[in-house]
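Suppose you are handed a protein chain with no further information: no name, no annotation, nothing but its sequence. What can you learn? This example shows the usual starting point.
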Amino acid sequence: MNVMKLFMRAATPAEQQLMADKIGTTRSYLYHLSASEDKAYAREPKPKLAAAIERASAEMHKASKGRLPRIYRTDLVTACRECEFAQRCLGSAAVRSDFPIVTD
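A reasonable first move is to predict its three-dimensional structure. Written in structure tokens, the prediction is:
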């Protein structure tokens, strides 16, 4: 399961809308990013939007006292994940998210 899907499952509709407003997009696009499990059809935002999602999720993670996952741009964009600078800055966080186990 991708990280955006985990976020969308954990967030209320109001929190999803707040995320969309913070990053300048729509809830529909957030669902679009979270829709695919198949790597062949995986949807990736542009790096600039991934950075905005990272910042917004960090704020929302803190405000929710850890209930909402923190999403890193490296979770969303292959190019960011492969970036040497991101790997040096984020260390092990470059290839993982901070999110609780979400069950149905």
